[in-house]
Amino acid sequence: MNSIIYKIALIVIVSSGQISVANTAIEYQKIINKQFPGFVILSPSDIDFSHADMSQSEIEKVRATAHLLLVNFNNDDVPDFVAKVRGTDKKTYPKSEHHPGYEYYSGGTVACISQRKREYRCEFLWETATFTLPERNYLVRIAKGTSMSCHHEDYMDPYSGKSGVTSFKLKTDAVGDLRMMGLGDSFFIPRPEGGFFRCTASD
Question: What 3-state class would DSSP assign to 28?
């Protein structure tokens, strides 16, 4: 994993989410049931850190919220949340002479932003038809005010749309969907007009 990206992720203290997530997971599952019928939030045991390129202390900082994370995408007083989800309809890729076969689901990462009257607007940050378990990406909160740079999109500023911007500060929380080994970390930054900007952090 890119050491600078990883350092950015682990600087963030996610105490705002670690304690309360366990107490509110059932309520958040109800929201997922309503907006994405047939999908369930992953359990902590679905995230496999056994082959992670991370120290044990680094793993412990993120384990509790690796699957379900509280954030603040719109600077209000109601927590938003991001969750790794999968469908309940399990499918099987058949075994063959050249392939061992595997089980898979529809799945991905969902962000839900609080609205008026305790309602939520949810969307997939990314989605795949071949989601497999155990999952080896994990979620981290990137705090408002953190300085970032987006490697793709010609160093685009997600707020102004200008290219060539080598650094900008987050105006709200963002979320990282990070790999445990190798490259490919993604960061999702809420846009003021709605939706998310997908960012690959630069070196």
Answer: helix
Summarised one tens digit per residue, pLDDT across range 86-100 is 999 999 998 888 888
116: CB partners within 8 A, 6+ apart: none
Residue 91 phi, psi dihedral angles, 5° rounding: -120, 160
- pTM of this structure: 0.85
* DSSP bridge partners of 126: 109
Do 46 and 133 meet the contact criterion of CB atoms below 8 Å apart? yes
Task: Dump pLDDT digits (tens) for 19-69.
Answer: 456 667 899 999 999 999 999 999 999 999 998 988 899 999 999 999 999
* Pair of tokens at residue 95: 């075994």
**Token pair of 181 as six digits:** 């080994």
Contact 45, 63 (CB under 8 A): no
